[in-house]
């Protein structure tokens, strides 16, 4: 017998144990436009919005924007944009999320995207477009990138999120629309400033007269987001179908932990996300920093070490005593001494909580998923910390080992056809030259030459030595050697 599909019509068939929306979809308006309708957004920001909608705050529905792929739109449209959130703790709980009201595919209908951002009903624009969606090179927007270059030529069919925002702001200015807040929800330090920078570059080229209106009516803010959210696989789909009794083409899983810290800078109406558990703060930088340097860096460290050890998932890597000890000590002995933390946070406790979350065996977070785009991620997560350690005379030996392991990860993943990275072709070219010493070349491709440690002879010599040792004896034996010297 063919199983029915999750939809408004089948909600009533669900077990009473399944939490579902208490609001009528027809009563919801979309005050939020979100770029990047992937798993993280659906397990994080959309959940906060769903909570508000359940509280009667009916204007905070979401119009999602997929830049190129129609996949999420095609999966969710037959379900009235409903989907299941599986919270994977000691026991699994299930919740139907209904915050997304519509999904537009920018590549198919660019003007529709511009129009919805420009619509006076839109009060907030948010982004989860990953690091590569910001087109950064050494912290600056890469104006030579083909997509950025195209948007600099014309905004008729934007190629980037910056382009869509700029085109929509031109229209909002022309219409003298209501104020707008644009909020970065990516793992980016000062992400709001990057969004502002990209939009400003394009407006200076295409509509300088809009800039003064933007300055008076638009705020670009940052936030710190946190929730481990693995990729959806067939096992999750089968598990959800068994529990719900209906088929969901796009369920999402996440850990029970969820956190959203938002810079308290808004133009016009501020959604009451604090009523859904978010925290508004005046200075978000310290919270961003500890998230990047403890959680995100810890994830990247374990992804590289775990892949080299032959593990598929992060929690498997932490079952190896050497890898677990190394990751903990790297964070506590090298990262924590040069990372100021907010007054209400204990750095050591934060790190312990992070590692406990990573050990959640019910949350299979693939090392290769974490390792995706790592040449971009380490520019935020690891490289600035190395400079801080050297500048303050603190120990940097663990970080040197991590860099060497990252180089080994890139080479092994590339040769195994596992690498997903925007610099893949450039890494492949280095390997094709059969140069056994690819450390500096790989690191340079990841932007390391823009940091002072790259010119520190002693530090780079230690990276080279660790690299040779990993290649000679393998990652676990190399860690043993590291601990014993």
Instruction: For the record, give the distance between the C-alpha atoms at the N and C termini, rounded to a whole number.
Output: 64 Å
Mean pLDDT rating:
95
Find the CATH topology of the largest domain. Answer: Rossmann fold
The percent range for strand residues is 5-15%
Radius of gyration from the CA trace? 23 Å
The number of helices is 21
| Total domain modules | 2
Major β-sheet annotation:
8 strands, mixed
For the largest sheet, list the strands in their spatial order: 5-2-1-6-9-10-12-13
Annotated CATH architecture of the largest domain? 3-Layer(aba) Sandwich
Description:
The model has no long low-confidence stretch (mean pLDDT 95). The strands form three sheets. This protein has an eight-stranded mixed beta sheet with strand order 5-2-1-6-9-10-12-13, with helices on both faces. Strands 4-3-11 form a three-stranded mixed beta sheet, sandwiched between helices. α6 (161-175) crosses α7 (191-206), α7 packs antiparallel against α8 (208-217) and α10 crosses α13 (347-358). It folds into two domains: 11-282, Rossmann fold (3-Layer(aba) Sandwich), CATH 3.40.50; 286-483, N-(1-d-carboxylethyl)-l-norvaline Dehydrogenase, domain 2. It starts with 31 loop residues before the first strand and ends with a helix. With 485 residues, the protein is of the alpha/beta class. The protein has helices at 39-43, 45-54, 71-76, 110-118, 146-153, 161-175, 191-206, 208-217, 234-244, 285-309, 314-317, 321-335, 347-358, 367-371, 374-381, 383-391, 397-415, 424-432, 439-445, 457-473, 475-483; strands spanning 32-35, 62-66, 83-88, 92-97, 100-105, 124-127, 136-137, 140-141, 180-184, 218-226, 252-254, 259-263, 279-281. A hairpin with a 2-residue loop joins β7 and β8 (140-141). The chain is 47% helix and 12% strand. The protein is built from 21 helices and 13 strands.
């Amino acid at each position: 017998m063919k199983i029915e599909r999750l939809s408004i019509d089948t909600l009533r068939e669900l077990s009473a144990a399944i939490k579902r929306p208490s609001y009528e979809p027809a009563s919801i308006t979309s005050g939020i436009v979100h770029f990047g309708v992937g798993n993280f957004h659906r397990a994080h920001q959309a959940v906060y919005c769903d909570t508000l909608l359940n509280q009667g705050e009916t204007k905070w529905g979401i119009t999602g924007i997929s830049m190129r792929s129609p996949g999420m739109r095609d999966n969710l449209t037959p379900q009235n944009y409903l989907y299941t959130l599986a919270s994977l703790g000691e026991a699994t709980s299930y919740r139907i999320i209904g915050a997304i009201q519509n999904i537009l595919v920018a590549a198919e209908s660019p003007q529709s995207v511009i129009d919805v951002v420009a619509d006076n009903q839109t009060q907030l624009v948010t982004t989860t477009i990953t690091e590569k969606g910001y087109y950064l090179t050494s912290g600056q927007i890469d104006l030579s990138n083909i997509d950025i270059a195209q948007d600099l030529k014309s905004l008729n069919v934007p190629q980037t999120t910056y382009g869509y925002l700029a085109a929509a702001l031109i229209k909002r200015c022309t219409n003298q629309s209501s104020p707008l807040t644009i909020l970065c929800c990516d793992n980016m330090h000062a992400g709001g400033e990057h969004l502002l920078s990209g939009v400003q570059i394009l407006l200076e080229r295409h509509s300088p007269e809009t800039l003064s209106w933007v300055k008076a009516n638009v705020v670009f803010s940052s936030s710190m987001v946190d929730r481990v959210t693995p990729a959806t696989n067939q096992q999750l789909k089968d598990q959800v179908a068994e529990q719900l009794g209906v088929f969901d083409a796009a369920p999402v899983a996440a850990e029970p932990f969820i956190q959203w810290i938002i810079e308290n800078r808004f133009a016009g109406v501020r959604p009451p996300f604090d009523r859904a558990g978010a925290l508004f703060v005046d200075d978000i930088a310290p919270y961003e920093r500890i998230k990047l340097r403890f959680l995100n860096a810890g994830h990247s460290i374990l992804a590289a070490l775990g892949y080299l050890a032959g593990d598929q998932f992060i929690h498997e890597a932490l079952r190896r005593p050497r890898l677990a000890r190394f990751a903990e000590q790297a964070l506590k002995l090298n990262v924590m001494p040069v990372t100021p933390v907010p007054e209400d946070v204990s750095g050591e406790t934060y790190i312990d909580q992070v590692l406990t979350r990573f050990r959640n065996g019910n949350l299979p977070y693939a090392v290769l998923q974490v390792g995706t785009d790592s040449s971009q991620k380490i520019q935020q997560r690891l490289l600035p910390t190395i400079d801080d350690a050297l500048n303050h005379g603190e120990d940097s030996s663990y970080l040197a080992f991590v860099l060497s392991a990252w180089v080994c990860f890139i080479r092994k993943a590339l040769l195994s056809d596992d690498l997903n990275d925007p610099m893949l072709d450039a890494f492949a070219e280095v390997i094709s030259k059969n140069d056994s010493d690819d450390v500096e070349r790989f690191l340079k491709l990841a932007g390391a030459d823009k940091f002072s440690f790259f010119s520190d002879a002693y530090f780079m010599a230690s990276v080279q030595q660790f690299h040779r040792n990993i290649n000679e004896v393998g990652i676990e034996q190399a860690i043993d050697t590291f601990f014993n010297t």
